[in-house]
Amino acid sequence: MLCGLSRETPGEADDGPYCKGGKVAGGADVALACRRQSIPEEFRGVTMVELTKKEGSTLGLTISGGTDKDGKPRVSNLRPGGLAARSDLLNVGDYIRSVNGIHLTRLRHDEIITLLKNVGERVVLEVEYELPPPAPENNPGIVSKTVDVSLYKEGNSFGFVLRGGAHEDGHKSRPLVLTYVRPGGPADREGSLKVGDRLLSVDGILLHGASHATALATLRQCSHEALFQVEYDVAIPDTVAKASGPLIVEITKTPGSALGISLTTGSHRNKPVITIDRIKPASVVDRSGALHAGDRILSIDGTSTEHCSLLEATKLLASVSEKVRLEILPAPQSRWPLKPSEAVKVQRSEQPHRWDPCVPSCHSPRPGHCRTPTWATPASQDQSRSLFSSPFSSPTMNHAFPCTNPSTLPRGSQPMSPRTTMGRRRQRRREHKSSCKPWSLPSPLGCLCA
């Protein structure tokens, strides 16, 4: 390794943004070579990166490419803990245009390595990179949220790579986007920021309309601790948006991270239940879009919470592995069907109604045996006379409330006249002979009172 730069070896894997291409006859990867020549102009950004290394130290990066190789010189690897990686100014896949003003266009791979070896302690790289996606259009189906995150600086960096910004060519203007969060860095340890988040302000300084260079200068001028305001998007799975009963939610979290939810106890029909109290903004649960405050937790990794105390449920949730499986009963609220996060999987729950208070005395194997699903009516509406359709019942059968007193049902006949005519008295006598007159309803519902 020379100056922290390793020569590329034959057949070396190159995992950059332009690494796909089909092999052609003769073994020449022409498509790959063509794509590596440069980033298309409309997606191309340029930045200056200054690195200062101590005498005898290395830059800690691997350069591939050259005139004798398959394309322009580019960063193919950043050594963890190295100077280049800790600067948070470079990404794997960035192209190197020049080193201290010397253009690399016509240099072979070994000449580039020699140049960087002898360039001195101060290294200025002109870097070409791929611009992040444009700002999202105004779409009622996209939910954008903001979060304030406090980070401590290590060296001159907060542990993330920032790209984009305003450009004199309006077509190249982009939001300031986090394109990489360095493992083990300040942002990664705090846990809220993710790749794709958009930086809005730093210590109250708005960055809307700021160029990439201006944004980097603002970050360098920050004190040891800085407050970042970041915008991120949340996608709600279609299954959750249309939920009418229990769901199974699988969420994958990074090792050592927290889900970001706190639990509380509630009551439903005088029975204690475990519900989600709060969700930490920008946490893995918040970003999943599958869970919301007020959702009832029915089970955690297959363990029912029916007889769990709040402490037991909290400990159970804290002990989950990298992938947690929750059975939930979504709280009624407005949700939009969006593109789901890759870290969450949602499916309809087919578990028995152990969340239904009438289950202990209800031994029928038929899922819709209990007359009124407990999730269909809030506690304040237990006495409502509305008829609800249960998703667990036959599609041709609706469940109605039982009739204990036919006089409480609505009558289709006209009110009794106060006049005591002979006809009225006969009508009253006929009604008196019947203790419970059947109430006629449409065919599938039948009679509420027998």
TrEMBL record:
Q: Where in the cell is it found?
A: Cytoplasm
Name a single GO cellular component: cytoplasm
Name of the protein this chain belongs to: Glutamate receptor-interacting protein 2-like
Chain positions covered by the region annotation Disordered: 369-390, 403-438
Q: Where do Polar residues bias regions lie? A: 374-383, 404-420
Gene name of the record: LOC114485388
Give GO BP annotations, semicolon-separated: neurotransmitter receptor transport, endosome to postsynaptic membrane
| Keywords, alphabetical | Cytoplasm, Repeat
**Which PROSITE patterns does the protein's record reference?**
PDZ (PS50106)
Keyword Acetylation in record: no
Organism of this sequence: Physeter macrocephalus
Q: Which residues form the PDZ domain?
A: 48-131, 148-234, 248-332
